[in-house]
Please model this.
Amino acid sequence: MNQEGVKQTPKEEHANTYQRKFEKVNEIINRLGRSRSALIPILQEVQEEYRYLPEEILTYIATALGLSPASVFGVATFYAQFSLEAKGKYVIRVCDGTACHVRGSNPVLDAIKKRVNLTGNKKTTDDLRYTIETVSCLGACGLAPVVMINDKIYGQMTPDAINIILDELEKEEAADE
Amino acid sequence: MNKEQLEQRRDQWRQGFAREKARILVCAGTGCVANGSLAVYEALKREVEARGEFITVDLLLESKETGVAVVKSGCHGFCEMGPLVRLEPSGILYTKVKVEDAPEIVEALLNGGKPVERLLYHHPLTGEVYAAEHQIPFYHHQQRTTLANCGRIDPEDIREYIANGGYAALAKVLTGMTPEAVCREVIASGLRGRGGGGFPTGKKWELTRIEKGPKKYVVCNGDEGDPGAFMDRSLMEGDPHRVLEGMIIAGYAIGADEGYIYVRAEYPLAVKRLKKAIAEAKEYGLLGQNILGTGFNFDLKIKEGAGAFVCGEETALLASIEGKRGMPSPKPPFPAQHGLWGKPTLINNVETYGNIAQIINKGADWFSGIGTPSNTGTKTFALTGQVANTGLIEVPLGTTLRQVVFEIGGGIRGGKKFKAVQIGGPSGGCLTEEHLDLPLDFDSLKAAGAMIGSGGLVVMDEGTCMVEVARFFMNFTQNESCGKCVPCREGTKRMLEILQRAVNGEGRPEDVETLQELAEAVRDGSLCGLGKTAPNPVLTMLKYFKDEYIAHVVEKRCPAGVCSALKGYQIDPEKCKGCSKCARLCPVQAISGELKKPYQIDQTKCIKCGACVKNCPFKAIKEG
Model:
């Protein structure tokens, strides 16, 4: 930090511009510390902020923590939670754990994909509204099959039921706009 | 706070809770919350308030007043029937409660009326109605000790835990037992690790205790990644202090002053409640510096996982805490010698820590009296799948599969036939009808080619295709393989391809042998538990359901009628009246024929959408 009235060198000025751009990231790093063990919590909070991990931020984190970019990328690509691509406003996680699988999670997944027009391996709609993922288990097996939309869990899903939920979601969305 | 003050507080709070006229417990576990239990809680609270009977726990404990407490509790276990509401002291359990039901429930409670019958549990087969929770067959055959508080207390209020005997074991250990004595007690109890492997817990403690300090760590493995398992989640959400107490005792026993709880990222509610529990325990001097005035220091932190199944393996979990890719490392050295940041580390599962306080309180003899001689105590299981009653259960080790599936689980839903139980998640195996009388314990299951794992029990009926299930698990382990060992990384991929071919109707007869060979190579050539056990579902499938596999590969037929590539629809000429409805409905014009004469399906055009089967007025179209 520069004190008022003290002239900045070009190097400092550059660093400050950079700092402003990454203000939030800096705040996260300063709060969680620069030790290696803080890497995963830092990535988690950054992803919460940006909804994904932009590449330039990963290299920035690597420099800040004194790690090689490769090791930060290594961690970011190892864990399923992290995404290097932008995610939609609504992240729909369809549980495909054993309990959900044997009670019919696939037809539910198909119904969602069909509704939001996602085919093949594409996960996010072009308008960045929806991201559809499957997860291995949400731990709500008693309610199988289960779907989680952002932080909310919906149990005992069927293709019809998920369509009703998405209808409501879109209605709310339209009302907000 | 010292031991005497803890006891004083306990007495004071106990008396306070005893003043409750009644208690309404609304389940706030993940399952019931998803079904809307929080709105039910608000509605019940409003009703009680409107009648002037509501009392907060604060008022109950700090004044002489009385009233009805409305409390959010942890998981009651019977998730299928949620939202669940339990009344105390009567023990009445209401199921599938809706907001509209609140006035009736409160009315019946306050005016001594009959319980609201339509909300009581009705047995799906006999129609019998049960008022009290403990009489319901689902609960009646269980022995809930680790889960004793789950669904009975507010997990976000340490006073409830303490009033129910909480932290007494910690006080006993810190004021009257040496670390050696604690380890001896745990060894004597016969407790084995509840995370799956079944290693004797006390021995692990002793091995870590004898290592040189000063820095050692205690780690709790809450990375419950097995699909179909939610025991640890329920315990962390429903009774977090029990886990904390077990960990603090472990810290004292092995000489550690720092601990980590590693929780799956998918469990936000568990993280929230554990954080609250840690803060409260610190506030009361039960965690942090100079615990209970004895000079013992122990601090706990939470680490949230980032979604990697392999992190359930202890060395991978430690790597993840250190901020690295969660990849396992060879053992030895074991974490007990060389663990977190190279220091001696004790790592146990959530449920294992959950057992500690009761062992200290009631003694090793009490604990070893439950279960069988080499498999002592109880075990929680997540009972799911095609069973009438799904939920979280706790039974003594050695209980038979039959008791679990048919007595507690109420048998197969929809009156179908039992086919198999998948136990132990992707590392476990499938057990069949011939295993129904097998005692559920570490050793018997291992002998049958399966394992307890963390305790997921997924019941499958006759409509489940075992080849497809094996493919499902292989897909899972293939995805989750960390890539370190070639046999696991490549072998699981090749095995998946073979199984994929089988369900697609492209299986080759020689695949059986290759599959077997690959399975053995992956098992023998992998470093960690994930690879070593990844072939289990395939091996048990080949062992117990080989005919089904052969049907897929040789006859190109799926006996359970699940694999869509092998499905075909046939019109029964005897039943077909030639109404032409199916031909008009068929989206690809695969059905043709003459009116009033039997129609035919062109199998090359058929896309197996099933529209004809569903709509045939004469039920003349069958899969086969």
